Amino acid sequence: MTRLTYTILDVFTSTLFLGNPLAIVRVPMELREKITQSRKQTIAREFNLSETVFLHEGNPDEPLEIDIFTADMELPFAGHPTIGTGCYLLSRNQTRDTVSLRTKAGDIPVTRGSTPGTVKLCVPTNFKIHPSHPQLRTKALQLGLVASDYVNGLEGSEPVASIVKGMTFLLLEVSSEAALGRLQPTPERPNAPPGLGEWGDFVGLYAFYERGDGVLRTRMFDRTLEDPATGSAASTLCGWLAKTRKGEGKHTFSILQGVEIGRKSEIEVTVEISKDGEIEKIELGGAAVEVMEGSLVAF
């Protein structure tokens, strides 16, 4: 039997058993070609977490390749896996302040944050705002909400945006924190605008409410799954808000997610908008704490 070691961290928190759990499975160089993508998917399904990372060991002075899987698909990029893997690697090498991760969406430099135990990274961005789209079916499935709970009403179109190809979110703004709390998982994904093509490989529902203190309260649903913290969705939302509502300059957002399911997660996103109104940079930040470690039988 061949075994792989793994570590589980809680991400976007510095408190044990909060945040979003992440499994990091280490793949030694000699097993790189033996652990197939299909086997990685099977292992991720066994963990049954929001995401599982497969970390390919290599030269720390070069980008370290990672593969990111949900329980049923591989992703080109996701926020909490990259933040968690960055925290994990830098915690094991106190002499380094930066590590680079190679994802399907590109290389991501991760640096230590100003607060101990935190990191920040530049999100690989191919930002695109798609045509707004009515969500009659999505809203009809939310039996606990009425028209006034939606900022755009029952029949109004809702914004849809992508952080990179294959990671797209319906951005559903609700009118109160109470309405946000009444949202429920459903068996269906949101109705995507026609013609998304490869942009629409994954379409999640990211609901949000902006509190009076500026904090964004959010929830992310992928059918019956509610994600405790979603860095890619947070980056998408903040990119959209900065581009459509803020304009030129550097804008920092604080996001609070996972409260309703007992997994409070704290996410920070900074977006830089150029003079011509385009996104120049999106930076994602957060903490992580190790919870457990062990080994698994790969084959």
Automatic annotation (TrEMBL):
<dbReference type="GO" id="GO:0005737">
    <property type="term" value="C:cytoplasm"/>
</dbReference>
<dbReference type="Pfam" id="PF02567">
    <property type="entry name" value="PhzC-PhzF"/>
</dbReference>
<feature type="active site">
    <location>
        <position position="51"/>
    </location>
</feature>
<protein>
    <recommendedName>
        <fullName>Phenazine biosynthesis protein</fullName>
    </recommendedName>
</protein>
<dbReference type="GO" id="GO:0016853">
    <property type="term" value="F:isomerase activity"/>
</dbReference>
<dbReference type="InterPro" id="IPR003719">
    <property type="entry name" value="Phenazine_PhzF-like"/>
</dbReference>
